[in-house]
Amino acid sequence: MHSFRYSLWQSNERNIMHGHLIEVQNKPLKKYQVQISYFRYQIFDNVDDDDKELDIENGIANRYEVEASSLEQAIARAIKVDTVIKAETMTRYPGMLPDEDEFDRETVLKFAEFLDDKGLFQDWMLIEPTAIQASLIEDEDELNTLTENAVIKHTNDMSDEIEDFLRDTKK
Residue ranges per domain, the chain? Predict the structure, then answer.
């Protein structure tokens, strides 16, 4: 168990607080899964407006399993791992060059400078996730079922609302 002391002095009001002991207990580590997702149009500005269908081509979803003492800490750890993954991905930028040609060191460095001047590296590293989902791994199946049930209920309610709307417009 960790503990620390703090003091607060407020000289204007003559309030003085001394010697309060705050005990912080260590929590056991639990296994969490964290999904961090990005829509493609967040990453690339030139995506056609008509092409926002959600599929593997238009989004990136990374799933991480981390040990942490809280959900908040699990998310923070997964974000750090995600940043490292983005940095590793960025190091593969020479793979963007055409396969049919061989490039010397100078050409590859000029290409890196071009990408850097365009802000691609900075934008990639600083992009905010579209969504973050997290849960205890042991709760994952139950949460998936809960989500499925909510979607089914919403779908059923929607069909009832459409029927009501159509019935009301016939009157």
Answer: 30-139
Q: What pLDDT sits at residue 116?
A: 81
Backbone angles phi, psi at 100, to 5 degrees: -70, -15
Which alpha helices (DSSP H) does 4-54 contain, by range? 40-43
Amino acid (1-letter code) at residue 85: I
Task: Yes or no: say if 65 and 30 are a contact pair by the CB < 8 Å rule.
Answer: no
**70 DSSP assignment:** S
Distance CA 29, CA 26 (A): 9
Q: What is the pLDDT of residue 11?
A: 47
- Environment class of 132 (CB within 10 Å of its CB; exposed 0-12, middle 13-18, buried 19+): middle
Q: Please, is 78 exposed, middle or buried when counting C-beta atoms within 10 Å of its C-beta (0-12, 13-18, 19+)? A: buried
Q: What is the mean pLDDT of each run of 10 residues along the chain (171 residues)?
A: 48 53 82 90 54 61 94 96 88 71 77 81 85 94 90 82 79 66
Helix (H) or strand (E) holding 142, with range, is helix 140-170
CB 68 within 8 A of CB 29: yes
